[in-house]
Amino acid sequence: xxxxxxxxxxxxxxxxxxxxxxxxxxxxxxxxxxxxxxxxxxxxxxxxxxxxxxxxxxxxxxxxxxxxxxxxxxxxxxxxxxxxxxxxxxxxxxxxxxxxxxxxxxxxxxxxxxxxxxxxxxxxxxxxxxxxxxxxxxxxxxxxxxxxxxxxxxxxxxxxxxxxxxxxxxxxxxxxxxxxxxxxxxxxxxxxxxxxxxxxxxxxxxxxxxxxxxxxxxxxxxxxxxxxxxxxxxxxxxxxxxxxxxxxxxxxxxxxxxxxxxxxxxxxxxxxxxxxxxxxxxxxxxxxxxxxxxxxxxxxxxxxxxxxxxxxx
Length: 313
Hints:
By secondary structure, the chain is of the alpha/beta class. It has helices at residues 38-46, 146-152, 167-177, 193-198, 202-209, 224-232, 257-264, 276-285; strands at 53-55, 74-81, 84-90, 99-101, 137-145, 164-165, 186-190, 219-220, 237-240, 268-271, 289-294, 304-306, 309-312.
């Protein structure tokens, strides 16, 4: 199907943001994942050359402690009989570690969730749950490595500094790495947050985890121009290694990228991914594409899911 340009999408009256609620129909549950058709899957599989695999998900216990006031997962070992044991997980937040944001995770104020649904999440039976994504997010992955790009040009960068990354710089990195963002690709953006987080002290991590801890990190600007770039690139999903894709603290004048692209444009988002080993391998060969496979859990009505993602080069 023909996907309209961002500039041709209608503006939601009262909010002033463009929306894509009618692109795939008002009963749609997949949003940008509709772009992963059979041809996109085959392009993704063809991107694997060496067969080397890379885990893109953190352990379920990382970050430790969890961010944004979430609780740590509590694992119990349960003896079913003298030969059989099970795991039991309590306080399990599917979005506390590497994770997917489902379409019931964020809404556009009173205008609703993706496709304009205004009911509360628990009242939207059969719609927008993460279970609709469980066939798998399988496509050609493209990694853009911002810290390595900056370093190569002698430009400073701090993943914890709260710097807003612009659409122009994403284009610049893609050009420098000589990669094309094809329709249906999974765009993986290394912002360097994982490496920076691993370098801080336990006390600093505890402070960062508190809702009032003043957590800051670099990320994408929330501007309309960023939404336009991501939409017109026709990506199937955007994944980053920082906690929320966009910069924190954000700029109210630029707006909320989450609000712009999750409930309004229906672009699938993944956060807290681990791209460190993958980035090293990509840089060594100067080849930034790979097979991306992520399979969200089939939790009916779920608002999010562990990433459960790998790359195959």
